[in-house]
Structure formats: structure tokens, C-alpha cells
Design brief:
The protein is of the alpha+beta class. It contains 16 helices and ten strands. α2 crosses α3 and α5 packs across α6. A hairpin with a 2-residue loop joins β4 and β5. The longest helix has 23 residues. This is FAD-dependent thymidylate synthase. It comes from Dissulfurirhabdus thermomarina. One of its GO terms (molecular function) is flavin adenine dinucleotide binding. Pfam families: Thy1.
Length: 321
């Protein structure tokens, strides 16, 4: 049995370097703990396989930020009348607006709103920039040019230079959390975000790559050496023994039914800065679950360091909490 502390890693270099495909692959592989299969050439076949199997939730783990210019106001109005779901859109001026969303949202737009001129222009641009993500959606004759509509991708420095009221809506942050499963049960209730989590259905913890043991998160409720901690550790050891016995006869998805909330899990969380502000404000307060509060208070200083204009207003409230 292994006991580990909760922790996090902010994975922002992918965004800053424009490595959209690699970011998606890194997130997807946490589900199966197959990060060792990542190579310089593995992202494209991984993503194509995900698309072929219809597992498009994996494609939510990146953000595409576009500037759209349109000559005709009626074209813009038609788009905003039927603005596809899961997008952020803000007008920048007459005939200009900022549009952002994850690749899955743009794929949904291509399927559900392909009659809109702006959607056609956006998809024509995206299939040129990220063919692996959108090439399968092209009509028979491809995405033809749309007169009067111009689309370009914003580079990371341009996004980071946006005014704070736009930054919080269009800038996302990817965080890799190592926590117990009770925390993730609460975290995924924040619906305006995307998640990929280590799968107990597929991970066989009796294998050598897991050290032949189950990992548990050190509980914040009991100090080591106390009777409470010893009782907790005894329960985890018993659970691990039963789980490993079940694995000898049954599948991981059957054996996992005995695993407790204390199990270590890894989860990728991808959300806008506005949503991260909301999550931390709620989950780092005194009213939050202690395990959730523990990880959010570990994470908050790093968020404030990276985006002080967004998160520093929370500092006083959390200091008093």
C-alpha cells in the first residue's frame, strides 16, 4: 500500500507554445495511465483514434481563440441568433468579434450549424490549422471560402494581452490534480469545465507499472501516529488485500467496487479563468469539504502568481476563511 499527499501541476506550457494536439493527448492518456506511450509522433494517431471511437470529451481539453471579421452585419446577426453552445463570444466592434471554445464545441458547430456562413469560414480556417481535429468533418468539396468573412487564430501572447474582462472568459487553464476520489466527485459538479480522470475500470493496480499496490491519499482528518490514522490505515490495507484478490479472478471494473473514496486519483481540469475563480472561491472556503479545501488552498497561490489581476481579489477573502 502506498500513501501519497495531494498535489497539482499547472500544465500551461502547451497553450503558450501552441501545442494543441499534444495537450489533448497528455490529458487523454491520464485516463489509462499510458503517458509512457507519448512520443513526438503519437498525438495525431491518438486523436484520430479518439475521434473514430466517438470519445469526443477528450477533445474538450484545449482552447481555440479566434478573431472573426465580417463585412455584413446581417451575417453576424444570424450567427448570434443561433450561437452554438459552449462558445464564448464577445463583440470587439462593428463586424468584429472574439470567439473561443474547445475543439469539441467547434466540431458540434460544424455538424449542427453548417448552414451558417461564419461557421463555414471558421471550419475552413481550423481544418487548415489543426487538420487532425477537423479533417473528418469536411463536406465532399471541402470547406469553400466565404466571401466577406475573415478568421484568424490568436497566439497565446495576444490572448494573455486581452483586457481582464475578456481574458477571464476566453483564457483557459489546464491543471493536473492528484487527489482522493471524494474530491473529484465534488469537483465535477462544476459543469462549466472539462474533466478527464484516471479510470479504475481500465487501470489494473496489481500490475508492475503500479508497483503491484493501491495508492491512497493521506487524509487531512487524522494526524499520523494517532489512533484515528492507524484505524484508517488498517482499513486501507484490508481494502487493498481484497481488491488484489478480486483482480486474480475478475476484471478491474469488478474489483474496483471495493475501492474507497481515499483512493488516489488523477484528474485533468480544463476551465476558463472565470470558472477557476468560481471554483476556488467556493471550494477554498471554510464551508468546503476539508479535503477539497486542502487542495484548493495549495493551488490558489500559483493561480494568483500567474494571473494576479484575476485572482488577487480573492486573497483577502481566503485569508479570513
Amino acid at each position: 500500500m502506498k500513501i501519497v499527499s495531494p498535489g497539482f501541476e499547472v500544465l500551461d506550457d502547451y497553450f503558450r507554445q501552441g501545442r494543441v494536439l499534444e495537450q489533448i493527448e497528455r490529458c487523454g492518456r491520464v485516463c489509462y495511465k499510458s503517458e509512457d506511450r507519448i512520443s513526438p509522433a503519437s498525438a495525431v494517431p491518438f486523436i484520430r483514434g479518439i475521434i473514430q471511437r466517438g470519445h469526443e470529451s477528450v477533445l474538450e481539453m484545449a482552447q481555440l481563440v479566434l478573431e472573426v471579421e465580417v463585412d455584413g452585419e446581417s451575417t453576424v446577426q444570424k450567427f448570434f441568433e443561433r450561437i452554438p453552445r459552449f462558445f464564448q463570444a464577445d463583440r470587439l466592434g462593428k463586424g468584429r468579434f472574439l470567439l473561443s471554445g474547445n475543439p469539441r464545441a467547434f466540431r458540434d458547430a460544424a455538424r449542427e450549424h453548417k448552414d451558417l456562413k461564419i461557421v463555414k469560414a471558421v471550419l475552413r480556417h481550423l481544418v487548415e490549422v489543426h487538420p487532425a481535429l477537423f479533417e473528418d468533418l469536411a463536406p465532399r468539396h471541402g470547406w469553400v471560402p466565404q466571401d466577406g468573412v475573415r478568421v484568424r487564430s490568436l497566439a497565446a501572447p495576444e490572448v494573455d494581452a486581452l483586457p481582464v474582462e475578456l481574458l477571464v472568459r476566453h483564457r483557459t487553464l489546464l491543471v493536473h490534480l492528484v487527489v482522493n476520489r471524494a474530491v473529484t466527485h465534488e469537483l465535477v459538479r462544476h459543469r462549466v469545465a472539462s474533466y478527464l480522470q484516471e479510470s479504475q475500470r481500465y487501470c489494473r493496480y496489481g500490475e508492475d507499472r503500479f508497483g503491484g499496490e493501491v495508492a491512497f491519499i493521506r487524509p487531512c482528518f487524522f494526524e499520523e501516529g494517532t489512533a484515528g490514522f492507524e484505524l484508517w490505515a488498517e482499513a486501507m490495507e484490508t481494502t487493498e488485500r481484497i481488491y488484489l484478490e478480486l483482480l486474480k479472478r475478475h476484471s478491474p471494473q469488478a474489483a474496483r467496487t471495493v475501492l474507497p473514496n481515499s483512493c488516489k486519483t488523477e484528474i485533468m481540469v480544463h476551465a476558463t479563468l472565470a470558472e477557476w475563480f468560481h471554483i476556488v472561491r467556493l471550494r477554498a472556503s471554510k464551508a468546503a469539504d476539508p479535503s477539497m479545501r486542502e487542495i484548493m488552498r495549495l493551488l490558489f497561490p500559483e493561480l494568483a502568481r500567474r494571473f494576479p489581476a484575476v485572482f488577487e481579489p480573492l486573497a483577502d477573502a481566503l485569508r479570513d476563511a
